[in-house]
Amino acid sequence: MKNKRLFIDIHAIQTLPPSNINRDDTGSPKSAQYGGVRRARVSSQSWKKVIRDYFKENSEASNLGVRTLNIVSYVAEKIQKIDPSIGEDDAMNKAEKAINDSFVRINADKKANALFFFGDRQAEKLAQAAIDGSNKKEIQSILKNNLSIDIALFGRMVAREKKDDPSYLNVEASCQVAHSISTHAVNQEFDYFTAIDELTGQQANAGASHIDTTEFNSSTLYRYANIAIHDLKDQLGDKEATIKTVALFIEAFTKSLPTGKVKSFANQTLPQLVLVSLREDRPVNLVSAYEEPVKSKEGYVEKSIGKLFEEYAKVEKFVDKPIYTAFVSTEQFDQENKEILEKDSLRDLLADIEGKLAENLEDGE
What we know:
By secondary structure, the protein is of the alpha+beta class. The protein contains eleven helices and twelve strands. The strands form two sheets. Strands 1, 2, 3, 6, 7, 8, 9, 10, 11 and 12 form a ten-stranded mixed beta sheet that branches. The chain has a two-stranded antiparallel ribbon with strand order 4-5.
């Protein structure tokens, strides 16, 4: 039986001081044109990477994945850990055979032809299968199932040759993460800096030994992500694991931050607002609130939050009423919709979300 459709929307308003957390190929802060003006932008890939890093620091490592070309040596290490009597060369050969049987393409250097997203539990089970001499069908089943939470959330796509059919290796992402953009127009700025040779710097007319510039901007970002919770539960096969994964994702989404040039700018901020909705019909991105850019000489946060709640009310003309909506904010403001609950802390919000998911997510696989 298929689970009933459940989606969770996570919205955040987060202000950043001078910073360059996500650079393009020229070293400039990424940007985008939206609503007729240039916006600061942080790519979804950048934020997904630090969310995965947050998982590694705050979750079971055994339920997480790793992206690597070195899948043969990774599985070979697992083989030797299970059975230390197996030599290194034999372990590499067993691992290579098992991986080839899964249709993951291996080159002459015993590396994957492309980065492969691999769960730790999958690697352990594949190592045991290699030792046991399991057949191709059993090996393929291992990589189809036993998904780590980050593979289930962010998906996995495997390029293949026409003669192969490893469609079971592909995992549809249950989570979508938007590119974050500023709620207002931004101007790129440059920090001109110099450095002196400290052994010669005291000499007359020593001058600068190094001159350079760093590009940066300041912004108030609108951030958005959603999870198709019914799909996530199908992938993980466990109601409790699904609930804990959703809560962990919201926590990671809130607390993580891309680290580009963070040592130069120390831009260690947290969101000023996190708004979460649980829906049955479809996810809703509220970026349209900022198609007309916020204009202000007294800060952007308060107006950005106000426009977000206004847009939330507008989209109710098109979508079903959510099961639950709540927010946490550092700001004081009037919020007229009494069905939107204000929580005192992120901890309280997560506890509420876990309770609502326990009520609305069906038991069983």
